[in-house]
Amino acid sequence: MSEARTARTAQPSATRRQVLARSGASVAAIAFAGSLSELFAGTAAAQSLGEQGYGPLVSDPAGLLDLPEGFRYKVLSREGDPLRSGEGRVPSNHDGMAALEGRHGRVHLVRNHENRVTAKIPVPTVEGLTYDPMGKGGCTALTLDHRGNVLSERVAIAGTAVNCAGGHTPWGTWLTCEETEDKAGTNGYTKDHGFIFEVDPEDPHRSGAVPLTAMGRFQHEAVAIDPRRGVVYETEDAFEKPFGLFYRFLPDKPEGGLGSLRAGGTLQAMRVPGVPDLSAIQETGASFDGIEWVDVPDPLAARTPVRLQDFGPKGITHAQKLEGCYWGGSSVYFVSSFAHSAQGSAADHFGQIWRYDPNSRRLTLVIVFGPSTDVQLPGEEPDNICLAPSGGLMVCEDGEGAQHVFGVTRKGEVYAMARGRQNTGTAQKPAWGEFAGVTFSPDGDTMYVNCYSPGTTFAVTGPWHR
């Protein structure tokens, strides 16, 4: 079932906010460090965005998604609807997602379902695609034609658990990540969980349901691949202290290709000399040379979670809420969604983006978010992030109050690209579903994004290059 709406009548532009320079002003929404040319470059054919983004949001009469004037959305899929394959119903909890190029102008959307054992609608089990029959999570795949119409929708992997984010590969597959470290016998599981799985959207049976065990067993969040070296970077979203680590995986077959990561490799964790906790770094532009990578003693965490293992007398570097991870230009970027000293972090912050340059072995804090006291303004807890084809960022908000997809232009303007209107709470205590899985079609003409709950996948089109 498909729904389409066009934004027509503008509301007051209370959601845009000018980025302030590094003045220390408490009202600054985002602070940048130095030049982010590769981050904001966009595609070669893209035109620059203006200083004001795309204008104010307009109210959606259908009560689903507010967008700037001239933009339209289509609902591609909603939880509870029948899967077009006939395998069951569309599962709950839409999370990370990628748009991958298919044949004849088609686009494959691979979508995670962050389902725990209590999930309302689990991913249906399918022979040859199910890892653990007791796992309720997994991925579904939608194939769209060149006009954006849904041609098919099917299970891509099942029997996994808490599939949060992941990342695409240079060879056109999706790496889906389990954000759990439950072992067999816990919550009724018959197998250990906490792995990465490769998903082939063209033919899921070619990838099957095989855990990439050498890449570690921990609370995975997202991955990004260096396309030249084949190195895979991984974030860990650990909920309790000691918090997660930032990893790299050195594959034995760095040339890549479907199934190449099954051949194994070496998992390492990042050590920033003299910095046991990244939250202690508050100044944008702070950088550290000589970053070290330490072999993980036991990637399978047979007895001890990886972040608790012995990394030697120098220890290892932790960070709270490591989430989004992506490759841009010659560097990998990763997100710390927030840090709270009351929960054990060395300091408080409302969101950071770090850049690691493997050529110089330098780590730099490039963006700091928040705080914001107005739920309608950009503020804390950035989650999934992607590079926009016209340059800049798209940021999924995962905090309190109203939920947005925010954009950041190359001129440093923060603007609201979308606002969710689906209320899963009450009139007295509203609760809007977070956004997740923001991604763009290979041609850059369509933005796809999920509402986590109620699970909804949107396709947004409009004057992206005006």
Automatic annotation (TrEMBL):
The record's listing under Pfam families reads: PhoX (PF05787)
Q: Which domain of life is it from?
A: Bacteria
Which InterPro entries does the UniProt entry name for this protein? PhoX, TAT_signal
What SUPFAM superfamilies does its record include?
A: Calcium-dependent phosphotriesterase (SSF63829)
Q: Which PANTHER family match?
A: MEMBRANE PROTEIN, SLR8030 PROTEIN
Protein name stated in the entry: PhoX family protein
What organism does the UniProt record list as the source?
Streptomyces antnestii
